Amino acid sequence: MVNSRLRKLAGFGVIWALLVVSVGAYTRLADAGLGCPDWPGCYGFLTVPEEAATITTAEARFPDAPVEIEKAWWEMGHRYIAGFLLLIVFTMLVLTWRNVKEHTPTKMVSALMVLILCQAAFGAWTVTLKLWPQVVTAHLLGGFATLSLIWLIYLRQGGLSSLVSDLPAPNLHTNIAFVAVVLQIMLGGWVSSNYAALACYDFPSCDGSYTPAMDLAQGFDLFQAAGPSYLGGLMDSEARAAIHWVHRIGAIFVLFIVGSLVYRLLFTKPLLAYLMGGLLLLQIALGILNVVWVLPLLNATAHNAVGALLLLSLVTVNFAPRLRFV
After folding, report:
1. What is the pTM (predicted TM-score) of this model?
2. Same structural domain for residues 24 and 150?
3. How many structural domains does the chain have?
4. Pair 154, 168 in one domain
């Protein structure tokens, strides 16, 4: 038995969470992550200071962070829509606990509430720790996890039943594909948070070489200290090249493992196979265009959004067959 109100709210939540992920990506890529140097307000105000008097006050409070109104609005806009997502999830929680007898996914929605509260904390740390890559990457992963869990709740309540009905049980292949996509997303977050997207200026080679000079130790130092500000990145060019090149190699592996899964799904769930295959090819194309077109903001943002949708397709084949037991 399902709760139709919860299904509708979860469906809206999926769309809104994808918006949060996309706006967050744009904010990060536009170097607006510190558009407001404090949290949860902006220069000590509830909204972005725009009048001459409030700007003067803001810059007196934060003399090392001059007001850039456009960047500040992107940052605050992201906070506003993320806050609305929190309200959506809280409403889902209330609906769930008020209708326990309808076999609603109480544990899943409760876990979602905990996850989104953790996301709020990581959003604050992103600002207070001045874009520390570890926190920025974790915040990105948390956003993708939030989106995925809302999606599963939507499916659990009967959403898109024709698409997911009679899915074959997950196996080693689907598990490996899921892990590969998650790891690639982690690498993508590490690329972005360390400003390594343009560390290789050409494609398919990297600076004219297929064996570029790389500093893997620095590039993947997960214990690097948080500096006074990480805006623009602190790693040298060889470390950034290492991050970028490993992300490209990961994309090749994802293309192979997910592509072969798409082929297998063609014989059991062709519609899902076409969707997954289309998203895979689009994601690869957007990644290449990020380099060729020198990281245009809309293209790079789309690369994040399509990556999220590709993840949802892998979440579906791995977890949807088990939802009736949740």
Report:
1. 0.95
2. yes
3. 2
4. no
| 147 contacts: CB under 8 Å, gap ≥ 6 | 14, 17, 18, 21, 308, 311, 312
For residues 133 and 221, give the distance between their C-alpha atoms in angstroms, rounded to a whole number: 10
User: Domain check: are 188 and 325 in the same one?
Assistant: yes
Q: In the block, which residue shows the tokens 């890529």?
A: 29
End position of a domain, from candidates 138, 159, 180: 159
Residue 1 has pLDDT above 60, yes or no: no
Q: Are residues 279 and 131 located together in one domain of the fold?
A: no
Q: What is the residue-wise DSSP string for 223-252?
A: TPPP-S--TT--S-HHHHHHHHHHHHHHHH
Where does the pLDDT of residue 44 fall: very low under 50, low under 70, confident under 90, or very high at 90 and above? very high
Fill in the amino acid letter for 79.
Answer: R
Fill in the amino acid letter for 309. Answer: L
Query: Alpha helix (H) ranges present in the chain?
Result: 4-29, 52-61, 69-98, 106-128, 133-156, 161-164, 172-193, 216-219, 237-265, 270-292, 297-319
Residues known to be catalytic:
75
d(CA 298, CA 47): 25
What is the average pLDDT across 61-80?
Answer: 96
Structure tokens at 22: 């996309």
Choose the final residue of a domain: 126, 142, 159: 159
